[in-house]
């Protein structure tokens, strides 16, 4: 009797046993219970000695970094001549994140039941976007899946590197500001009231800066239970709305490109992602109009997404890519010149790749310069803030000493 059809909703059991020749065999099987596993294998002539349910709890979630690593590993396996299903087994069992292992086993089960690889990926849009699935489909149709996976892995690695650099540039000043707020709040709540009780015995009028600091301290002491939850709730509400509200996303994308220092870095990172995506899609043989569907979304900025839609509409009516990009009015002249050369020479993917390399290097340099610039600025701000509070609290003592 044939084994029951695999159901991805059923738990996965790892089993070990001996076949009719006495050879030890191992494998995995989805079933409702361990008893069903034993019965199914016994009908196949296997004497089961061990059955263990695979647990995926506590494995965390599948991140974009996990998907990138899996893509690179799968590309390496296929290039080495390892069959697709066996590649899934090797990569899945070697995954440190249990959630990734479960995802890969589910993908393997889909492929085993007759789905194409891109169809299997499309069942998990949370992890594999349209660009990923379109490239996999192009690779399957052209018979160059290993090469497309390698190109896709390179694309995701470079894109992640850009995002990581932007995050690192923003993390340092934000973390310092958070620490500064906590330190100031602790000073206002615990330190300043102590000075205030000492000043009450002076019987003299306090200087203006000291009165301001004491007033702020009184407000913190009387309303700390409102201030901290209020700030936390406001930040959470803003981030929640930003993630789910299109108008807020559009507003923030526009503002981010106009920021005094960070705007230039964000624009260069966006340009690198736009050109890298176009290069990858075009090199995979995806028609330009179809490729632009993924390029706009992959740029990560609404301004460039809308510009890409405009470019796509103009190209559909017969306009050249470089003219459509000029009409969008968001691309630097260097990008336009390189695209023009790429169109004329038939090497658009190579030229876009060179542009992406250039802007990725620009982001590296900009982030390094930004870190060097932010450190002294933050030190000045923190020194002025904390030093101002200390001086304000010691002014009455200095004044008393002068009188004595």
Distance between the termini: 104 Å
Q: Percent of residues in beta strands? A: 5-15%
Mean pLDDT: 83
Give the neighbour order of strands across the main sheet.
2-1-3
Low-confidence stretches: 1-8
Work out the helix count: 15
- Series of secondary-structure elements, N-terminal to C-terminal: EEHEHHHHHHHHHHHHHH
Helix content: over 70%
Question: How would a textbook summarize the main sheet?
Answer: 3 strands, antiparallel
Give the radius of gyration. Answer: 30 Å
| Broad shape | flat
Structural class: mainly alpha
- Beta strands, count: 3
Commentary on this structure:
The chain contains 15 helices and 3 strands. With 404 residues, it is mostly helical. Helix 7 packs antiparallel against helix 10 and helix 10 packs antiparallel against helix 11. It has a 3-stranded antiparallel sheet with strand order 2-1-3, covered by helices on one side. The N terminus is likely disordered. Strand 1 and strand 2 form a beta hairpin.
Give a concise summary.
The protein has 404 residues and is mainly alpha-helical. It has 15 helices and 3 strands.
